[in-house]
Amino acid sequence: MTQYLPYVKSYKRSWQTDETMIKNHLLPMFAEIKMNVLSAADIAVFMEHLKENKYSAGTINRALVLLRYGFNLAIKWKVPGVKFNPVNDIKLLKNDNKIERFLTSKETDILLAEVKKSNNTMLPFIVAFLLLTGARKREVLDAKWKDINFSQKTWKIPKTKSGKIRFIPLCPQCIKLLNKLLLLQKNNSFNTINSSVSNDYIFANPKTKKPYVSIFTAWDKARKSAGLTNLRIHDLRHSFASFLVNAGRSLYEVQQLLGHADIKTTSRYAHLSNERLQEAVNLVGKNLDINNI
Hints:
By secondary structure, the chain is mainly alpha-helical. It has 13 helices and three strands, in the order H-H-H-H-H-H-H-E-E-E-H-H-H-H-H-H. It has helices spanning 4-9, 15-30, 40-52, 57-76, 105-115, 123-133, 137-141, 172-186, 216-225, 235-246, 251-258, 263-266, 274-286, and strands spanning 148-149, 154-157, 166-169. A three-stranded antiparallel beta sheet has the order 1-2-3, with no helix packed on it. Helix 6 runs antiparallel to helix 8.
């Protein structure tokens, strides 16, 4: 980790994701094991551990890809004792979960109530903004006030996953949330260590005035309290898409709002709620008079 992170920080925009994966999953399992003795069997045990804790195939695969890359770098850098990559003997899990996890309206209310209780005073704002915009976690954590246009009700994301600038329209609830947060920050209502530092970042850590590297601990506690232990932060983005689709919006609109370059990526969100499916079949039933059968 001491060599890996400084290296990826030099070119990888999403290095914080790697850091979170390392801290939350890899170090707890492998911190006491040297790379030159780590075996494919050890990695298989690690995979089973993640499965038992209900982590998705996608999360497990990302951990494996990170491990594989780490070993490849170690071999390239000639780290003493590291002669081969044990991850090469491990196959990625089949990730065929086409229907993404999304929140119902009731679950959303419960989650918002629990994040409001968090010791992390910024978590309620972050979670609400994620739900209201469908943005990615890192996009929200790194968001700056200068990129909010209150008059046009838009948010400019200068660095997206595709490398392009993206503009997100903001709903009235978003504007209300931002105004509330702006007022709290101006009044210095959050506990701060260095209040002389200006808040460039919208959702900055009140103690450092810098973006959070990770909010996993606070998020994990809140989701468990809400009874949503399997809910990932990225599922808030899925929920945003689901709300739109269930409201009858087109996949093209969802594609534009999520910033997908390919409509095929958006099609994974084309699921409908049971209530909406029931409404659909009810329409068919109204046109069929079974009294004549």
